[in-house]
Amino acid sequence: MSRWGEEQRQAARRGVWRWLLATLGLSPAARRADARAAACDAGAEGERRTAVLLQPLEAAGWTVLHDRAIPGARRANADHVLVSPGARVFLVDSKLWSKRHPVHKSGGRLWHGRVDRSRTVDSVRYETDLIAHALWVPVQPVIVVHNAPVHGGGFGAHGVPVVPADRLLEVLAVNDGPPAGREAAALARRAAAVLPSY
Q1: What CATH number should be reported for the domain whose range is 56-194?
Q2: pLDDT tens digits, residue range 80-105?
Q3: What is the pLDDT of residues 158-187, one digit of tens each?
Q4: DSSP letter string over the chain?
Q5: pTM over 0.70
Q6: Boundaries of every domain in the chain
């Protein structure tokens, strides 16, 4: 459970009357807080799953930074920023979506079943631009989806690859370049300094 989610739940129940109304199921504020908290908890679980997937890359010389603040973003954070041995930078955004509905693209928009998830692409592109500006290097965004099936084993949505979790490492490895040694190490140090823990 995420800290922010638990704070939302508690705030909606602060005070005797709020607690009583929430307990009886009569508090719209508590229901909204619970829905926001559940979404936040799912996001945190998706990030945990992605962190586990990325562990082999660290052993292979990649720098993996989890849950980083983004300069210039008031509320957004980067789920995972990776610097490859080839000095390439990736922003991996984790999504934990219901397996009952497929993820697909239609009409230029990202969908999860009948839910329009295009704002996810917009947010990732915004975060990518801010990180690229902060580091002065190109950044490749990737949306990784846990649970929900991804049409065709992955696709692009406005320049952002959307991939199932079981293909994430393959997609990252294919998009790395030749080893860059000191350049990659210097870039990894800069990323860690410029993008502090959130």
Answers
A1: 3.40.1350
A2: 999 999 999 999 999 999 999 999 99
A3: 999 999 999 999 999 999 999 999 999 999
A4: --HHHHHHHHHTT-SHHHHHHHHTT--HHHHHHHHHHHHHHHHHHHHHHHHHHHHHHHHTT-EEEEEEE-TT-SS-EEEEEEE-TTS-EEEEEEEEE-TTS-EEEETTEEEETTEE-HHHHHHHHHHHHHHHHHHTS-EEEEEEEEES-BGGG-EEETTEEEEEGGGHHHHHHHT--S--THHHHHHHHHHHHHS-B-
A5: yes
A6: 56-194
